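Re: [help] complex structure
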Amino acid sequence: MAKKSYSFYPGCSSQKAASSSNYQVSVDTMCKELDIELNEIPDWNCCSASIGYAGGGELPRLALSARNMALSEEAHPGQDIVATCAACWLSTKETQERLHNDSDLLAETNTALAEAGLKLKNDKKVRHMVEVLIEDLGYEELGKHVKKPLEGLKIAGYVGCQTNRPFGIAGESFENPKYLDKLIETVGAEACDNYEKKVSCCGGALAFSEPEKSQALIKDIIESAYDNGADMLVTPCPVCQMNTEVYQDQINAKYGTKFKLPVVYYSTLLSVAYGKSAKEAALDGQIIRAKQLEDIASK
Amino acid sequence: MSDYNQNMIEKYRGSFLKEVEANVEEGDWVKMCMQCGVCSGSCPLGPHWEHPPQEIFMMIRANKREEVLESSSMWMCTSCYNCIARCPRGLPITHIMHGLATYAKRLGLQPKEQPTAKFAQLFWDNLSKTGRVNELKLGLSLYFMNGFSEGVKTSLKMKDIGLGMMKTKRMSPMEFFGGHKCKDTKGFQAMLKKAQELEEARIGKSGS
Ligand code: SF4
Ligand code: SF4
Ligand code: SF4
Ligand code: SF4
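Output below.
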């Protein structure tokens, strides 16, 4: 397949030394193997995720994503915008939609952008990395690169909320999207078909501000994975990953559970199956180590 | 009570629905709700909401202005979009909840000790300074948002998580001393300032 190029919006959590920097490492590895070129939007800013509403009104929030889109138009004409963070993808896509439907808002947004010397045409597609994999490459192509099938592993695909609703991935249902399961099977592992908590919310940003309430949600997400015999969870979203991985000890302390379930990104899974090293697959970024994947990677 | 709040009370005396329609993001959708209750049943933190979304929509029509705006409910929205995906009338419920929270805040009516309201404001302050979120600074101010001794307790509780993140290089202490930011901080801030002004002008218009 010919090289594919995109205008890339990495988002704050992927920055060097930030909470999902490991996601970025594995995405880079995966993209190199698949001949996907990610051109970082120069000088991008945070989109304010889904909690900007407390400090910023509608227009300031729209301006945040609009600035990124305008920078992308300027630097990478003709390339779709691609995000790896579900929240980044969602807020950018929402901004695009709202400005598309409301020309007054677009005009005001452009007045604000002019202060930074920018102008938005708003004519780009905004996509999640998973869409690129599935729609632009396809499962068959993704499967062709597998060198070490992840045989014997049982994995629960935790889709979560924001890669699934309100936009979702084309052709998938809100209640039971199958794309993570298909990716799991593509790399030779077994998917937990009946994973009940597949699209349940982990609390998102409220894991910080309402830890006890969110941890109750996370507990159910992990428990159901164990009930389905999962060796690990795989997620497409940095907030899901962080929430389901880092609080397991606190949940154990509170509920007397013995959780120790690794939670990896699809990009880590693909990288290991593509025969990359533990480091390239960012397995060293796991707080709960994914031993089985480490073993495969070192074989 | 703020002047702004007083003005709004006088302007819309007797019709909170009209006030919401004119001042809350996506507020003109509220009248479309048919009270089926699907949204309330879909809400992940629903059991903790004083008034789940369906009830909020009913209360707006019933003129329960202060009860709605002073409620902590909307601040418990996790932005999971379950409600939007399921609402038979297609209401953008998530955005209405965010919009109500923004409006309550603007009027000075939001509950004073609401943790998400505080955290979300810290997040905004953090990003609007440099254009990017500095996770360590955000984490620290979050732990200390309820005062110093509470903060020490929370930090201790979160200590192991912090250590785990640091060991895996997912949270760098260097972030604390500068870290990531936009190069064009000046342009970024000027843009936000302008957006704020335009928005205020619009609010002033509908409020006058
Ligand atoms: S959503 Fe998260 S990762 Fe994305 S830009 Fe905003 S804070 Fe950063
Ligand atoms: S599952 Fe959690 S982190 Fe993932 S999108 Fe939903 S709220 Fe956000
Ligand atoms: S689901 Fe929609 S129609 Fe039903 S109560 Fe909620 S907002 Fe109203
Ligand atoms: S988006 Fe908000 S209001 Fe809607 S179901 Fe989720 S938490 Fe509830």
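Chain A has a mean pLDDT of 93.
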